């Protein structure tokens, strides 16, 4: 299969290109879908609220242009990078009110160090759970909103053309990189760190999958091993022989407290399973010859890490 990989020079895209090549497919870089069998859409623009116009242009307008070009070139297979950020705070449990999907946390609470989401009905601290694809989507920042809009665009394209679209809602993707210099909040935010090679393998499965024509399917893509941001930062620091970062207590609006999505559907329907164990993935952060590999881990808004 000839596969156009947008964002193919990026962190995840470059691993997808390698996985496609290893599987005997022919990856094509760029943004022109003419002459390919499928498109694997990874290109992405990130930023804060001030970058909203650039993010909407780069993530949504650019996707619409790509989809129109695919329709004209009769390319009917799309796999794209989504994000679990579309769920916002995700699924939680209240002892009195059962399943709750809380809204964004209040600035006053964050400033006072009250990081845990509370039940909107009784104010009790909630217990985080696993978020399924059927959970409501409540993006908390512009970037997450552009990721959700991309899903709607893909679904419209599939209906209009009879194509098949799959969105892989990635969890926090990690791979060899530099160290997190600062951990936000108290470091107890729960995440699901999934190795970049497993994410590349999920893309391969999705590209080869047989889904109904005219459909769009979304799949959570995570390791199934929830960890905290502080735990990840400490493990990486130990592997690289550096001091453990201390949680800063600072916060960013738009960061969610806990998000751990349930990836059972991806395992069940596409037969994917993560292979890189946390300990092995983290061991890649060991310094080689005194140099760290390029920093892939830090830039993404989903992480809750910032550089100092
Ligand atoms: N890294 C993560 O933890 C994570 C988590 C959730 C979702 N994702 C999604 O995965 C995808 C890949 O992320 P990544 O971490 O590899 O990011 P990345 O920044 O390393 O790669 C994105 C690439 O897209 C390119 N790009 C941006 N706009 C483009 C355009 N208009 N045309 C062509 N290329 C363009 C950039 O130059 C960059 O090389 C993104 O869609 C991102 O939202 C990543």
Q: What series of H and E elements makes up the topology? A: EHEEHEEEHEEHEEEEHEEHEHHE
Shape: globular
Q: Care to count the β-strands?
A: 16
Mean pLDDT: 90
Relative helix content: 25-40%
In CATH's first tier, which class applies? Alpha Beta
CATH topology: Rossmann fold
Instruction: Report on the biggest sheet.
Output: 6 strands, parallel
Q: What is the CATH architecture assignment?
A: 3-Layer(aba) Sandwich
Strand order of the largest sheet: 2-1-3-4-9-13
Q: How far apart, in Å, are the first and last alpha carbons?
A: 44 Å
Bound molecules: nicotinamide-adenine-dinucleotide
Report on this structure.
This protein has 308 residues and is an alpha/beta fold. It has a single domain (2-288), classed as NAD(P)-binding Rossmann-like Domain (Rossmann fold). 31% of the residues lie in helices and 20% in strands. The protein has helices at residues 11-22, 52-73, 107-111, 142-161, 196-208, 229-240, 264-270, 278-283, and strands at 2-6, 26-29, 38-41, 77-83, 92-94, 98-100, 127-128, 130-131, 164-170, 172-174, 182-183, 190-195, 216-221, 226-228, 260-261, 305-306. The strands form 5 sheets. Strands 2-1-3-4-9-13 form a 6-stranded parallel β-sheet, with helices on both faces. The chain has a 3-stranded antiparallel β-sheet with strand order 6-5-7, with no helix packed on it. A 3-stranded mixed β-sheet has the order 10-12-14. Helix 1 packs across helix 5 (196-208) and helix 2 runs parallel beside helix 4. The protein is globular, with a radius of gyration of 19 Å. It binds nicotinamide-adenine-dinucleotide. Nicotinamide-adenine-dinucleotide binds next to helix 1, helix 2, strand 4 and strand 10.
